[in-house]
Amino acid sequence: MKKPIIILTGPTAVGKTKASIELAKKIGGEIISADSMQVYKYMDIGSAKIRSEEMQGVPHYLIDELEPDEEFHVVRFQEMAKQAMEKIYANGHIPIVVGGTGFYIQALLYDIDFTESNEDSSYREELERLAKEKGAQYLHEELRKVDEKSAETIHANNVKRVIRALEFFKQTGQKISEHNETERTKESPYDFCYFVLTDDRKLLYDRINLRVDQMVQDGLLQEVQSLKERGYTKDMVSMQGLGYKEILDYLDGDCTLEEAIYILKRDTRHFAKRQLTWFRRERDVIWIDKSQYDHNEAKVVDVIITKIQERIPYICLK
Question: Annotated binding residues, as ranges?
Fold first, then answer.
């Protein structure tokens, strides 16, 4: 018998955290973060990390588990999330995967295999050198030559994923986009409900702008300065995250604070747009438009629970 899993995702600032807590309390859930930044310690404000008092006693996993100089990628996410799921099932509870990193969610939900290719550190080092010498855009164009579809879906600044795609092509002769597409057609090994929260675009963008202002007010600059003082540098994966690279540029004198805030707001809005594009491509997704429920959190959670009971009737309310 397949085990149950609930996915609750959506663009940044849509309100996943609050809904996830209420849902977890009602169905006996424990939460696994599918966020590429909240896994890092000391990175609280810029990642909009849930605070312990907001958790309301609901166990959370993949929050504050890694040092900022450690690498976190989809394979590591899979490993850590599966370990968390085993603990949650052992507790007799339901895993609720919450976060906006669609690629991670897809990898977990469909148990996508990333292990086909062998490591080739010399080629990776060569690609990393090219990225440093000629820039991320150059490497991205190299990817476009061999795998246009991947180039369309992987942002040029996501150098790690660009390198991964080029590595995969060199080692297997197959486009990673085709490999991932094949993997995506697999049936999920879980009984799942995959919810995507969404909202009126203008409201969402306004909320993003307000959130950035609040982050600055809450001490984002001091947080990034503290990370710098701990020795964490902009070439680390963690420090490339939204909210960190922009403020680092300001602290390094590469732009004014006003410019950094403007860029952060703009890039976060663009990120939200890309997230929505990703989720539209996914299979078996249940869209929940908050504007249809007057932005009433209780109504939204009730709709989610109704859908869960339709699809996974053995999940009982607490």
Answer: 10-17
Binding residues for ATP: 10-17
Distance CA 149, CA 137 (A): 16
Residue 37 near residue 69 (C-beta atoms within 8 A): no
User: Contact 170/123 with Cβ under 8 angstroms?
Assistant: yes
Domains detected in the chain: 3-112+186-311 (3.40.50.300), 121-182 (1.10.20.140)
In a 3-state reduction of DSSP, which class is residue 254?
coil
**Residue ranges for the binding site for substrate?**
12-17
Mind listing the pLDDT tens digit for each residue in 203-252? 999 999 999 999 999 999 999 999 999 999 988 989 999 999 999 999 99
Residues 51-58: contacts with CB within 8 Å, 24+ apart?
Answer: 54/17, 54/21, 55/21, 56/21, 56/25, 58/21, 58/24, 58/25, 58/29, 58/30, 58/31
